[in-house]
Amino acid sequence: MPEGPSIVILREEAAGFVGQRILRAEGNAKIDMTRLPGKRVESLRSFGKQTLIELPDVAIRIHLLMFGSYRINERKEAVPRLSLGFDNGELNFYTCSVRLLDGDLDDLYDWRGDVMSDTWDPALARRKLRAMPDTLVCDALLDQNVFAGVGNIIKNEVLYRIRVHPLSTVGALPPRKLGELVKQAREYSFEFLAWKKAYVLRKHWLVHNRKCCPRHDIPLTRAYLGKTNRRSFFCERCQKRYGEG
């Protein structure tokens, strides 16, 4: 599943369509395609793992889900979920969720919850976390209401960085660790963005899809954990378990 930094890259790559008028809209998405042709793209925004194409009276929300993809000025052999044609090219989305949103995006989204946003609010994230003391940290980091944009790679790497076991409970974390969790969720996301742009992201993984702990050179544990049942890679020696999660 593409994480927040990858969606920022999508937004930047498609920025050339801002100000352009949609000439055609087609695909197998279950939306009213007739609402789109003739509309000018006012802005391209992102919230967490969502791409938002803002038009004068409606916004197109794209979520790439687990296996979604996009192509700019080229196509895959598969039928696109949504294909938008412009004078200067086309934008194609595949295997994704497409919805039309009515209303002002600033009323629909609280941008303070997006780890990539200029308005990200760490104090708000800490308050949300304190309200969910029994939640496992491996689930809390993937909660898009708290950390919009954080995905499984970021989860695994952040927990290793701050030496916290994924089965720790949020309420059992010392205040310093809770602060580190929030701080690193944002900092690692921006490092992820820089590494992905430089095509070196995988080289910087410490535990995700790795076999040995780089600190102790012992085998990492790999397990599907939490209510999210996502893959976790962690070290039983250097990642402390807080609470009875």
From TrEMBL:
BP-aspect Gene Ontology terms: base-excision repair
Its domain of life reads Bacteria
Q: Which residues form the Formamidopyrimidine-DNA glycosylase catalytic domain?
A: 2-101
GO MF, one annotated term: zinc ion binding
Q: Does the keyword DNA-binding apply?
A: yes
Under the heading Pfam families, the entry gives: Fapy_DNA_glyco, H2TH
InterPro entries referenced in this protein's UniProt entry, alphabetically: FPG_cat (IPR012319), FPG_N (IPR035937), H2TH_FPG (IPR015886), Ribosomal_uS13-like_H2TH (IPR010979)
- Give the catalytic activity: Hydrolysis of DNA containing ring-opened 7-methylguanine residues, releasing 2,6-diamino-4-hydroxy-5-(N-methyl)formamidopyrimidine
SUPFAM superfamilies under this entry? N-terminal domain of MutM-like DNA repair proteins, S13-like H2TH domain
* Lyase recorded as keyword: yes
Report keywords, A-Z. Answer: DNA damage, DNA repair, DNA-binding, Endonuclease, Glycosidase, Hydrolase, Lyase, Multifunctional enzyme, Nuclease
What family is reported? Belongs to the FPG family.
In Swiss-Prot or TrEMBL terms, this protein is called: Endonuclease
